[in-house]
Write a structure and sequence with these properties.
117 residues; seven-stranded mixed β-sheet; mainly beta
């Protein structure tokens, strides 16, 4: 089992920056990738960024490319999401996901990001 705890959400104005953190514990040696997703009420959860645990390869959708950066600290078992130039449409609950070998995906409890115009 892998446990994930997100932090760093909050209320900011458009154009501001925030950094989210996701700390993993438990069977962290079984993680091969981690990612961030977001969800607003009534909508499906949306992919925001992923990073592979060994090589650090990243992937983003066009909606956040150039503004968001995912990174990881393997020693701390933590993944970060640096969000710059935030827009009101970035408002959502942000969830951390760990892809684990031989198991289902693990999710954190979510952290709210609200961007005011």
């Amino acid at each position: 089992q892998v446990q994930l705890v997100e932090s760093g959400g909050g209320l900011v104005q458009a154009g501001a920056s925030l950094r989210l953190s996701c700390a993993a514990s438990g069977r962290t040696d079984s993680i091969f990738a981690m990612g961030w997703f977001r969800q607003t009420p009534g909508k499906e959860r949306e992919f925001v960024a992923t990073i592979t645990w060994k090589s650090g390869s990243t992937n983003y959708p066009d909606s956040v490319k150039g503004r968001f950066t995912i990174s990881r600290d393997n020693a701390k078992n933590t993944v970060y999401l640096q969000m710059n130039s935030l827009k009101p449409e970035d408002t959502a609950a942000y969830y951390c996901k760990a892809s684990v070998r031989g198991s289902i995906d693990h999710w954190g409890q979510g952290t709210q990001v609200t961007v005011s115009s």
